[in-house]
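[Automated response] Your request has been received and processed.

Submitted sequence:
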Amino acid sequence: MKRVVVTGMSGITSLGSDWPTIAAAFAANRSGIRRMDNWDCYPELNTRLGGPVTDFSIPGHWTRKQLRSMGRVSHLVVAAAEHALAQAGLLDDPAIRDGRMGVACGSSTGSTDEIKAFGNMLLNYTADGLNANSYVRMMPHTTAANVSIFFGLKGRVIPTSSACTSGSQGIGYAYEAIRFGRLPLMLAGGGEELCPTEAMVFDALYATSLRNDAPHTSPRPYDSARDGLVIGEGAGMLVLEELEHARARGATIYAEIVGFGSNADGQHTTRPETATMRRAMELALQDAGLPASAIGYVNGHGTATEQGDIAETLATSELFGPGMPISSQKGFLGHTLGACGALEAWFSIEMMNSDWYVHNLNLEQVDPRCGELDYLCGEPRIMRNEYVMNNNFAFGGVNTSLVFRRWTES
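Generated structure:
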């Protein structure tokens, strides 16, 4: 088995696109959630809250030819991938274009402007707004395909369109591809563009926050006064590399991935199951060869939905006990769906390396129905850990768990 390390990381969020900026916002309790006034045209949509990326612009060096196949979600993911490759020192390295690098990433859906155009065709019998690239911008694997084509990657392409686990499955499957010796380099992660249709998905389930006049007070993961989730936007990408390959080129190593677990509830498309959530964590620990006591912090999924928060924390508490520190960054950014697993993996590594762990924004009173855990509240906490876990759970009953190790030469 090969060892897999992280040599590049980047992301785009409603609070910034680099760790120092994002960390400063976390420390200042600054929320990326705002009232989406442009959703007022949808009277049957109850929520007006979102976490949009407002400061992203398409890089000037991208060509018109490159842009033809990309909608907004691909813009975000490709930009994050470009920054991660640059950090890894691989952006101009021929090694990424000779078949040694692949990509595993996804989103909940493709770009919705194109979905709207195809819907217009079915409803109004017109092809207005459609062209040769419309499907490529809409297709579920648009992010993975565009990353591969933009950077000339000829290794395997693993699309992960699995809603809230798209990003973490991308990282997990990329890790496995390297671990089992299929290739030495992978780009991994996911993204999501903000669209009112995604808010409507959860609105129809009575699972969105309605604090429309107080956007910075929601979402509230694990809080007894939470009233639902908020949809966010963003992208996150990691460069994964086989350890000896990274050493041979003198790469900076930020963390090692030592465990990945993924399974399915197999019971209900939208109702989470505590037993299988716990099993996904156990699978990650087994893959890492670690006891539960080795984990020093859990980055929880924490969507601020009643069923999700309760099931997740009961599973976590049953496995780790009441002393396990846990937090979710969704209180700051909202639920970024296909991006959340990758962004939260990035945050987990940065927090582990800085011994500084972000708290749960808006968590004032833990719901007594949640599992007994050490919920980080009020302000970040200083801790030193060798291993951290990042968990994500998605519609369709998809569960993922990743274990990261602080990098030390060994």
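Summary generated for your ticket: Residues 71 and 137 are 5 Å apart (CA to CA). The longest strand covers residues 255-264.
If you did not submit this request, please reply to this message.
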